[in-house]
Amino acid sequence: MKPIIGITAFEEQVQGFHTLNTNYINAVFAAGGIPVILPTTNDQEAFDGYMDLIHGLIFSGGIDISPLYYGENPLKEIKRVSTIRDEYEFGLFEKVYKKKLPILGICRGLQLMNVYLGGSLYQDIDRQLPGSLGHCPDYITIEEEFHSISIRKETRFYEIFNQDTIYVNSYHHQGINKLGDNLQVAAVADDGLIEVVEAADDRFMIGVQFHPEALLKRKPIFLKIFEELIRAAKANI
Length: 237
What we know:
By secondary structure, the chain is α/β, with parallel strands linked by helices. It has helices at residues 22-31, 44-53, 83-99, 108-116, 125-128, 156-161, 212-215, 223-233; strands spanning 4-8, 10-12, 17-19, 34-38, 56-59, 103-106, 121-122, 147-151, 165-168, 175-176, 183-189, 194-199, 205-208. Helix 1 crosses helix 8 and helix 2 packs across helix 3.
């Protein structure tokens, strides 16, 4: 049996539908898993049903997390938040974290993990991180590699790639400021911004600030991240 991987979706309240980029679905299929989209809800029984269904979970990318959750008022660069999505994903993260299901957080997903575990974010990298490099280009496709990241040895992420440096895409104006509990840094950009975190204990929990699912068309090596998620999820079948 192939492991079932849940993927969080975002409810577009104005348009009245849930959204999820097809790249996430294709990545899970390609890695040998079965993707299932998890609609937004605050129903605890639904959360329990999700837990009975899935063997691993991907927290997808999207809009900013409300800075109120890490004790700050929003800067003017904060353009769009949804506390409905925030509360849904925090509730879902609490369930999977306590159950120790494998977790992969992508872009916003990494930030959500960090905030839930007591960390904080740069609300806007350009404004708050002195000497920052480019992280949110205006006219470059998300399928394009944009900058390098340095991977720290003796991390799970290094074992996945077995390389000191890889090149990633970049599509975010926020990033980790204070690191959350039970997280360790696995990779950084040249300006010091955290690009990859993972669990400090033995569970499978990786968060990446870039979008590996969008890089797969040109760089199949990024499938390794999803394959490791699937491998970890098989233990829960």
